[in-house]
Structures are given as structure tokens and as C-alpha cells.
Design brief:
The complex is a heterodimer of chains A (about 120) and B (about 110).
Chain A: E1 4-6, E2 11-14, E3 19-25, E4 32-38, E5 45-50, E6 54-58, E7 61-66, E8 71-76, E9 85-92, E10 104-105, E11 109-114
Chain B: E1 4-7, E2 10-13, E3 19-25, E4 32-38, E5 45-51, E6 57-58, E7 67-73, E8 76-81, E9 90-98, E10 101-104, E11 108-112
Parallel strand pairs in B: 2-11
Antiparallel strand pairs in B: 1-3, 3-8, 4-5, 4-9, 5-6, 7-8, 9-10, 9-11
Classes of the chains: A mainly beta (about 120), B mainly beta (about 110).
């Protein structure tokens, strides 16, 4: 069974700190990896996706992928109270937009950024 | 950016009735759309994958006769919950395929009394 596991939360960091969110996956055939943010009562919104090993940066967010270790992480720099949400890691076998790209979600990590 | 809408955003119905939820990609065409369900304090679970013009593919454990999916055009997919029961109460979210990723609609909260 394809599984996606995220570090247990909740995670609490002070404003301005770096928040580190981790995710491991069991299917070595996975090709694309996504981080979504979900505010309470809302649907997920895409933060970023990564396909290749290494780091990918977008503003305050950096995704890191290590396929050998089957590990993907998300770093949030200069965390803000507005970053407080549930962060979902999702994994797909193919490209995320195609029918091969069925997303398997982790259970989510609740992040709280306190002033 | 890519925008996906859902209608209605919230629906309350009596047990035994059917409910239709629409999912539209507003500014792009989506060959594939996905339907998810999320129960309180749980993650999203994929229900089915629908491709325009063909039958939907349902995940294991999802009753295809209960959750009818139609993907008649590149911008519209519908999910009909037939003979809804209280255990079908959930947050239903669609997503539309876009190059390299999927974009989610705002979700429909269904409450069956």
C-alpha cells in the first residue's frame, strides 16, 4: 500500500523562526511531490511542487527532495502567524496534472506560528 | 492563476435525497478532474478520477452507483451523491488537472440529516 507519512504535530514555532515539515513516502515509483496548505474549513492550496532531487525555492518556502531516502521536506523561513495552517504532503506516481498523477496525501501537520 | 469553482459551497439535505455538486475550471481546460472527500480531522481521500468523455475510475471502496460522476466537458465535472445518508456527510473537494499539478476547488460541505 502506498503510504505517505508526515511528522507528527502539532508544530509550534515563534514568529520569524524557520518551520521544518517532513514527509516520507513508501512507493519508490513516485515521481512528483507536492506541498499544500489547508486553512481550517477551507480546501487545500498549492504551495509548491518538486520533481527532482535537491532544493527548490519559492519566496520564503524551500522544498527539499531526496528520492534515495524517500524523503521530502518543506522549510518555511521567517514564519508568520498567517502561516498557521495544516500542511499536507502529497505524492503522485506521474506528473501531478495527469490521470497518472493521483495524489496520495499524508495525514497533515498542524503548524502554529505564535507572535 | 488557475481557478476552480464548486457549487454549491454548502448543502443540507434529508436522508434519501440526491445531491449534485458541480466542479468547474474557470480559466483553463482540464482533461482530468479528481474528486476527494475529507472527514473532520482527517486528510483528503481520493474517491475517483474522471477524464473528459469517458467513465470515471473509482478508488477501492467507493461505490460507483452511489457516487455518480459525469465529466461532460473540459471545464465541468459533476458528482451526484444518490440516496444520501448521514454517513455521507463530509467535505467534498474537486481538483482539476493543470500542467504539472492539480488545482483544488473551494469544496462543498454536505450535511445529510
Amino acid at each position: 500500500q502506498k503510504e505517505v507519512e508526515q511528522n507528527s504535530g502539532p508544530l509550534s514555532v515563534p514568529e520569524g523562526a524557520i518551520a521544518s515539515l517532513n514527509c516520507t513516502y513508501s512507493d519508490r515509483g513516485s515521481q512528483s511531490f507536492f506541498w499544500y496548505r489547508q486553512y481550517s474549513g477551507k480546501s487545500p492550496e498549492l504551495i509548491m511542487f518538486i520533481y527532482s532531487n535537491g532544493d527548490k525555492e519559492d519566496g520564503r518556502f524551500t522544498a527539499q527532495l531526496n528520492k534515495a531516502s524517500q524523503y521530502v521536506s518543506l522549510l518555511i523561513r521567517d514564519s508568520q502567524p498567517s502561516d498557521s495552517a495544516t500542511y499536507l504532503c502529497a505524492v503522485a506516481q506521474g506528473a501531478g496534472g495527469t490521470s497518472y498523477g493521483k495524489l496520495t496525501f499524508g495525514q497533515g501537520t498542524i503548524l502554529t506560528v505564535h507572535p | 492563476g488557475a481557478v476552480v469553482s464548486q457549487h454549491p459551497s454548502r448543502v443540507i439535505c434529508k436522508s434519501g435525497t440526491s445531491v449534485k455538486i458541480e466542479c468547474r475550471s474557470l480559466d483553463f481546460q482540464a482533461t482530468t478532474m479528481f474528486w476527494y472527500r475529507q472527514f473532520p480531522k482527517q486528510s483528503l481521500m481520493l474517491m475517483a478520477t474522471s477524464n473528459e468523455g469517458s467513465k470515471a475510475t473509482y478508488e477501492q471502496g467507493v461505490e460507483k452507483d452511489k457516487f455518480l460522476i459525469n465529466h461532460a466537458s473540459l471545464t465541468l465535472s459533476t458528482l451526484t451523491v444518490t440516496s444520501a445518508h448521514p454517513e455521507d456527510s463530509s467535505f467534498y473537494i474537486c481538483s482539476a488537472s493543470h500542467p504539472e499539478t492539480q488545482y483544488f476547488g473551494p469544496g462543498t460541505r454536505l450535511l445529510v440529516l
